[in-house]
Design brief:
This is Molybdopterin-dependent oxidoreductase. InterPro entries: Ig_E-set, OxRdtase_Mopterin-bd_dom, OxRdtase_Mopterin-bd_sf. It comes from Motilibacter deserti. The chain is an alpha+beta fold. The chain folds into 3 domains: 165 residues, no CATH class; 167 residues, Alpha-Beta Complex (Sulfite Oxidase, Chain A, domain 2); 108 residues, Sandwich (Immunoglobulin-like), CATH 2.60.40.650. Helices cover 33% and strands 22% of the residues. The strands form 4 sheets. The chain has a 5-stranded mixed β-sheet. Strands 3, 4, 7, 8 and 9 form a 5-stranded antiparallel β-sheet that branches. α4 packs antiparallel against α5. It is globular. It starts with a helix and ends with a strand. The protein binds the ligand Nc1nc2c(c(=O)[nH]1)N[C@H]1C(S)=C(S)[C@@H](COP(=O)(O)O)O[C@H]1N2 and molybdenum atom (MO).
Amino acid sequence: MLAALLSLGTAELVAALLGRTSSPVIAVGGAFVDRTPRWLKEFAIRTFGENDKDVLIAGVVATVLVLALLVGALAVRRRVLGYAFIALLAAVAASAAVSRPNADWQDVLPSLVGGLLGGLALGLLLHAVSSRVAPRATTTEAGSQKPESQVGVGRRRFLVAAAGVGVAAVSTELIARAARSRLDVAASRAAVRLPVPASPAPALAPGAMLRTAGLSSFYTASRDFYRVDTALTVPQLTTEDWRLRIHGDVERELSLDWQQLLARPMIERDITLTCVSNEVGGNLVGTARWLGVPLKPLLEEAGPRARADQIVSRSVDGMTIGTPTAVVMDGRDAMLAVAMNGEPLLPKHGFPVRMVVPGLYGYVSATKWVTELELTSFDAYDAYWVKRGWAEQAPIKTASRIDTPRPFSKNPPGRVAVAGVAWAQHRGVSKVEVRVDGGPWQPAQLSAAGSKDLWRQWVWEWDATEPGTHKLEVRATDADGETQPQTREAPFPEGSQGWHSVVVRVTD
Ligand SMILES: Nc1nc2c(c(=O)[nH]1)N[C@H]1C(S)=C(S)[C@@H](COP(=O)(O)O)O[C@H]1N2
Ligand SMILES: [Mo]
């Protein structure tokens, strides 16, 4: 176990010194994520939420340690097993590391060096163990009788070796962390001066925000904003290193750096983002004020060819996201965003640059840490989630959610404010209705309409007179007059559907 720990620590350290934000453990975790069946992914998200990544990393490390413990016990008798295990570990880690998107040959080095040091440590420990089990100087007259003092010396030798390897393992891990934090983007982010938008966000109408207790705020604070991505460590990309390449089926390839991006006229817009994995009543949705460079004029400069009906965006961590060219070009506020709620993007939300396309689920539009736009066709290329069976085209479905009262809450009889949010991006919400125990639908009061890319808050005063349990249900209608269907659909493959309901108690 100690030798395996030293292998992992050394590998982390070498990866950090090479300036890689990934390490073999993360690469193995990442390879695992890409091959995880959908049920397991959904179980992990449901059970661990945003901690799912930490749980996975801990799982990888725990698996290695448990295997090491078992193999270690055998290796005391058959050393070759121990060395074979360390070699296998290094080989698995190296192959995972080089097969990650954006990997290069350097990525074998951490596993290689880790394996070598682990092997050396194992040799040292096994040597110390054997001198404890069978001290060399046992040629006393009593034959097999070992003198007390020699057993003591052997044990001491083993403990010293074990402590040495243990300290080395922990130190490599600690130094690796310190080295990695040098790479972080905090300084780059702190140095960003955001430009004044050429087109500021339209002022919100009076009454655009309702203030019912327990209701989601109209703007979602960046630190509370949901996070969904496959990145096990937040990619660390500085503005100095950032480049965007626009290529593929275009008349002219374009390449932009951060200064060139910032020099372009910017728009500022309030837009509600939603994840396709959001369950009915779920919270993978939020509203922010985005500042960015509109995509349409930029693409027009590159000149997409007629057959290029798909824009494949790539991120620094190798995610691929396919967005219909027609949607980006239809006049909506599709942008390369550099700021969220008046600040440079948080690293976990895509610093320094991400895409935002109103009306489409995140997995087909909202590429974080974006570095590349390739014009191609849907026939020619399937993006990451499309390869895994999710829909190629994914406009956001109309949805509504009850925020308050909470499920199973106890409410004294009398007036109860039933309130929540509803969204139908790029169509707009025109009506929200609530019903109690399957009774008649009652129109809720809506917050004043903003742009059609925004959610609306709603509230309905319930005169709760009957004690007992009651079921509250909500449904929304979009601006085209389409009402949410009742039939429940799971998020896979194109977004959940159905009415959200909560059961609450009215006390006597
Ligand atoms: N690089 C990268 N960008 C990504 C993803 C990802 O896994 N990697 N996930 C997408 C998905 S599924 C969603 S819903 C949004 C979420 O954006 P947020 O985490 O800022 O809320 O990011 C999108 N952009
Ligand atoms: Mo998503």
